[in-house]
Write a structure and sequence with these properties.
The complex is a heterodimer of chains A (710) and B (124).
Chain A (H helix, E strand, L loop, with lengths): L1 H27 L5 H20 L3 H18 L7 H23 L5 H12 L4 H5 L22 E9 L10 H9 L2 E8 L17 E8 L3 H7 L7 E7 L6 H12 L20 H15 L22 H27 L6 H25 E3 L1 H18 L3 E6 L4 E3 H22 L3 H6 L6 E10 L2 E8 L6 H10 L11 H6 L22 H10 L3 E7 L3 E9 L4 E9 L2 E6 L3 E6 L5 E3 L5 E5 L2 E7 H4 L12 E6 L5 E6 L1 E9 L13 E6 L5 E5 L1 H7 L8 H10 L1
Helix pairs in contact in A: 1-2, 1-4, 2-3, 3-4, 3-5, 4-5, 11-12, 13-14, 14-18
Chain B lengths: L3 E5 L3 H13 L3 E5 L2 H11 L3 E5 L7 H9 L9 E5 L4 H10 L3 E4 L4 H12 L4
Parallel strand pairs in B: 1-2, 1-3, 3-4, 4-5
The chains are: A alpha+beta (710), B alpha/beta (124).
């Protein structure tokens, strides 16, 4: 139970951190609105409140400091200035870290934590700082006593409510009832102050009570009962038993009441309200009746009517639904095939209905997909933080400008995009943006700008990271690639090819491993992450003007448009997104280049040919010329021609992951079920080409020059 | 008849914690997501006791108490304030508005139930 509540807490924290970031960004942009400050205060406050419930002390402590500064700000005792805003931004980042650590069990950077605490404390006036946060409810008054005092004591309590008490909803009766739970209570009403009937003031409080409580609990527990009416009543509590006399007093009491010395809490405890004095009867039972007669309309409304109704659903349920929709689409194509195979006369009506079925299935699919779709805004907001961190770590000034934050992308894509984006942005700050002096010399604004944008582009999502830095240092990149043996020394590469060298495994331009983009992780990891999502990444760069990374991702990971082809009597699917062009092959288009392989000549350009059947080991010798070439473009911008036997169809296929079914097969991305119920492999052109000996990516130009030379 | 509680808090976590604690203790639990929502729901739910947070959007806890105790609604039911700080001026301000008592966040179930018993006499 508490586990799931804690999950909700962390989910809520995400929302709150987001709200906080949004507010801080507004403040950073000069919007010092009272409501913005309030919203941030509430967000931090809620995080603190929830964290306290789960005993996350570190988080509570930090949130408290952070919140107190905001309290100062909203009460106008403190003004925003640049240094403070910077501190608040860093603190919000740290708060997010603390939440993440609390959730995932990481360790806090203690030094950083202390520095921030100290910095925040400077903005908090002394007396407020002293107001320490109490981690336990009710000042611990009702917490289990560490040492149980087994002996009973008798307390005499005089309770005289002031008239103010009656406006606060406190009822003497309930207080007495609570007292009676502590032990044996007797109540005597003191109505001696009641004036004559004609002089009575309805507003005044004339009644008082004298109570005797025999209890094992301490005086603190009794005071706790009266906690809410403190200051609203005259209250005296006296104990006739000071510790030394306690035993005697107890014995005397026992003798007086003729009870056993063994105290039992609930053994025939007389209800103090059973034989009340007549006057008290009226006084005490009144609220009970009032309560009973309260209108209690049975409204079974337990659902929340918030300002923006949302429903939180277990992701698993949505995924089950997506799976079912996938089956529905498969089912449709099977049905269509069956009907086509039928030896029936006129099936036009059936086909019309089937078309309707297909459209409905598509509608349902889109609907279900949209449940999983989320705006990229939270992701982008986190990225603002990455840029801030990277800037301060490198001593550069860079700001992140985001566009298209409302663009919706599949949840999994958003989750798995976080790391690659982080890496690209860090790189952009670390390698792209110049130092402030350098920028001034180049006639640019001192502060670098990184533009992060998202947009929908014909069935896919395009994410672009554009910096206005120095651009790729091509001579150096090329030299490094040569030094590392990634390319031959005499390689002739186009600018775009040089830029894309950055994505090669084992490539890193950083002279020394900086704590930012270092750690042995290169852009190849970024590329793998993007490819893993069925996407592509590209870089383009203009020296002195900056670089642009473009990530193209499929809208959904469950369904895609594919071209159904045949390869060595097998049916396979090639993702449409990677196909640039298709063409029927003819002999004059093929140029044999010795043992090196074959090139396809397309309108004067040469493209290496990759025989899919050969690459997958389905056919050893290339005896018959393939029927169709699929011109594909790889992530590095390289073009290759995939040779297949024939094209059957272009259709939407449901992606069935092969994870856990069989290992990683080079060239195969996933599988799908076709209309005839057969399973078809979905090919991954990129890895087929990489695996194909005849079409090694960077050899093209060299081979052309070789061919011309020979 | 179960004792009906209307809990007003903008934090989902706190609402969940309250729901868990109160339902287990045998209370009937209703919730509202901010002060305005709470005041709006008051008539429908007709609670025996109200628990309200102070820092909330749209209408804060003080506003909730003032409106519930105001002549329009003229509520007589106990109102407990759920607060993080136990600053005396906060308590007196809440009390001046007509609050019955307060529960300090983070609360433990035991003290929450104890506080509710003290103001409602609930047998739960």
């Amino acid at each position: 139970m508490s586990g799931s509540i804690q999950d909700t807490f962390f989910e809520e924290c995400e929302d709150l951190l987001e709200a906080m970031d949004e507010g801080l960004t507004a403040i950073e942009g000069g919007e010092h609105d009272q409501e913005v400050v309030n919203a941030i205060f509430r967000a931090v406050h809620s995080i603190k409140g929830g964290a306290g419930a789960f005993g996350l002390d570190e988080l509570v402590g930090f949130a408290h400091k952070f919140e107190t500064v905001f309290d100062e700000l909203r009460s106008g005792k403190l003004e925003f200035d640049t240094a403070l805003i910077q501190l608040l931004l860093r603190s919000s980042d740290h708060l997010a870290d603390l939440v993440a650590n609390a959730r995932d069990g990481g360790t806090t950077d203690q030094a950083h934590h202390d520095v921030l605490i100290e910095a925040l404390a400077k903005y908090i006036p002394e007396e407020e700082e002293d107001l320490t946060f109490e981690p336990m409810g009710l000042s611990g008054a009702f917490a289990p006593e560490p040492i149980m005092d087994d002996s009973e004591k008798t307390f005499e309590i005089r309770f005289h409510p002031l008239k103010e008490m009656y406006g606060t909803g406190n009822e003497p009766f309930f207080l007495f009832q609570a007292l009676s739970e502590l032990g044996e209570l007797s109540v005597r009403l003191d109505d001696s102050e009641l004036p004559g009937f004609d002089t009575i003031d309805a507003e005044e409080s004339y009644l008082a009570w004298n109570l005797t409580l025999i209890t094992k609990d301490s005086q603190d527990s009794i005071e706790a009962v009266f906690e809410f009416v403190e200051g609203l009543c005259e209250l005296t509590i006296s104990s006739d038993a000071d510790p030394a006399e306690e035993a005697d007093a107890l014995a005397a009491l026992n003798a007086a009441f003729g009870t056993d010395a063994e105290p039992t809490a609930d053994a025939g405890q007389p209800d103090p309200f059973e034989q009340p004095a007549p006057a008290k009867e009226a006084e005490v039972s009144a609220p009970v009746e009032e309560k009973a007669s309260l209108p209690k309309t049975e409204t079974a409304k337990t659902e929340q009517r918030g300002p923006k109704p949302t429903l939180r659903v277990d992701l698993e349920r949505v995924d089950r639904l997506i799976n079912a929709v996938g089956e529905l689409i498969i089912n449709h194509s099977m049905l269509a095939q069956q009907i086509a195979n039928l030896d029936a006369g006129d099936v036009r009506d059936v086909e019309t209905e089937l078309e309707g079925f297909k459209n409905l299935a598509r509608d349902i699919q889109e609907g279900v997909m949209s449940i999983r779709a989320q705006p990229v805004k939270p992701l982008f907001q986190r990225m603002a933080r990455i840029v801030r961190e990277a800037s301060s770590a490198t001593g550069k000034t860079a700001k992140l400008v985001t566009e298209g934050e409302a663009t919706e992308v599949d949840k999994t894509v958003i989750e798995r995009l976080s790391d690659p984006l982080t890496h690209i942005l860090r790189n952009a700050v670390d390698h792209g943006i110049e130092k402030p002096e350098g920028r001034e010399e180049a006639g640019k604004d001192k502060a670098g700008e990184i533009r992060l944008s998202a947009s929908h582009r014909s069935g896919s999502v395009c994410i672009e990271i554009r910096d206005d830095g120095a651009g790729v240092n091509r001579p150096r990149v090329k030299q490094i690639a040569i030094d590392k043996g990634l390319i031959p020394e005499n390689a002739e590469l186009t600018d775009s090819e040089i830029d894309n060298l950055l994505f090669l495994p084992g490539f890193s331009t950083a002279k020394e491993v900086s704590n930012l983009s270092g750690r042995g992780v290169g852009m190849d990891v970024v590329k793998n992450a993007v490819t893993g999502l069925g996407g592509r990444i590209n870089i383009s760069s203009t020296p002195g003007k900056g670089s642009t990374f473009t990530i193209i991702l499929p809208l959904t990971l469950a369904v895609m448009d594919g071209m159904v082809v045949s390869v060595a009597d097998q049916t396979m699917v090639v993702p449409i997104t990677s196909i640039v062009e298709t063409m029927r092959g003819s002999d004059e288009m093929i140029n044999n280049l010795g043992a090196d392989g074959t090139l396809l000549s397309i309108r004067g350009n040469f493209v290496p040919i990759c025989d899919v059947a050969g690459a997958l080991g389905l056919r050893q010798c290339h005896d018959q010329p393939p029927g169709v070439y699929l011109l594909v473009e790889t992530e590095t911008g390289q073009r290759s021609a995939l040779a297949v036997d024939d094209i059957f169809d272009q259709r939407q296929v449901v992606i069935k992951s092969l994870d856990g079914v069989c290992g990683n097969i080079p060239g195969v991305a996933a599988a799908t079920i076709l209309g005839d119920g057969k399973i078809a492999m979905i090919l991954d052109p990129e890895s087929i080409i990489a695996a194909s000996p005849s079409a090694a990516a960077f050899d093209t130009e060299r081979r052309i020059s070789n061919a011309i030379a020979s | 008849m179960k004792t009906k509680v209307l809990a007003i808090d903008d934090s989902r976590t706190i609402r969940n914690l309250l729901a868990a604690a109160l339902e287990e203790a045998g209370f009937e639990y209703h919730s509202a997501v901010d002060g305005r929502d709470g005041v709006d729901k008051y008539a429908d739910v007709a609670p025996d006791v109200v628990i309200t947070d102070i820092n909330m959007p749209i209408l804060d806890g003080f506003g909730v108490i003032e409106e519930l105790r105001g002549t329009q609604i003229n509520s007589k039911v106990p109102i407990l304030v759920l607060t993080t700080e136990s600053a005396p001026e906060l308590k007196s301000r809440a009390r001046a508005a007509g609050a019955t008592g307060w529960i300090t966040k983070p609360f433990d179930d035991q003290s929450l139930i104890f506080a509710l018993k003290r103001v409602t006499g609930a047998a739960a």
